[in-house]
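I am writing to request your help with a piece of structural work I have in hand. Here, with my thanks, is the record as I have it:
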Amino acid sequence: MSGTPEVWTVGRLLAWTSDYLARHGSPTPRLDAELLLAHVRQCPRIGLYTHFGEEVATEQREAFKELIRRRARGEPVAYLTGHKEFYSLSFEVTPDVLVPRPETEGVLEAVLDRARPMLQHQPQLALADVGTGSGILAVCAARFLPNVHVTAIDVSAEAIAVAQRNAQRHQVADRIDFRVGDLLQCLPPETRFDIVMSNPPYVAEHEFETLPPDVRCFEPRRALVAGPTGMEIIQRLVEQSPCYLRPGGWLVMEISPMLDDSVRRLFCENAGWRHLEVLPDLAGHARVVAAQYLPAASAAASDSDPVMPETSENDRPESKVAEAEDSDRAET
């Protein structure tokens, strides 16, 4: 009947809002709509499809409508729902911290790959997470490596508060020491770690305006921008870490693909770094760098060449071309 009002079912709401968000620039409109409606209905996303023809209550529609308005203005879905999944764990997320991204899982995997063999020879490891943000690296390391103690550092007290709640949520707070401070220099000089990990700011100032609006306008700028070149925080970490790493310890960092060559040169210019490896993300771009610190006395007993990338399936052809070109320029 023409006079019968249309019923706003789960399916109809998803269809309408997906189209609305697409017209407002969302790159993932259907996913956004599903996540927000599942959040309002307090159900998993699959629950939307098992109740696809069910009418949505008025109060839920109003709450959903407000979230859709905010998403259409660019606000990240993670800030709207208050959580984000990382490495199959759910983390609290607020505008005081960056939204966790899949690329950072590469840092965690590189840390796990290095920590597990070390734990076969020593009973416990000490790890540092520099620039912990929401605590995803610190919490996951403590969760998946039972015999580690993590020191999580961030310059933002608000970020540390979020990380502490995430540690409590995942029942690892007793193995994480939280510190508000600027990189490693906030720690006592006698502190030593087996692994230092970090997802540092690496966006250059001139790149900031080119970031997507939902990143540029909503995520904390100081967690993104390092300085004029993007290398400023990475350089400080490479220079500070030898004072806080045990011989044979590792520094593992996320980097921008555009900084690949600069990061390689930085390690070459600082003594003691060996076994440099640059690992790609799922798109094949340089994303994670890992290097082992072996000071002169320890290096004398090693057959390894300084700062030579290990040959592996992950070696990128474009990196080999760049190295060859650098060599040619050096010879001319």
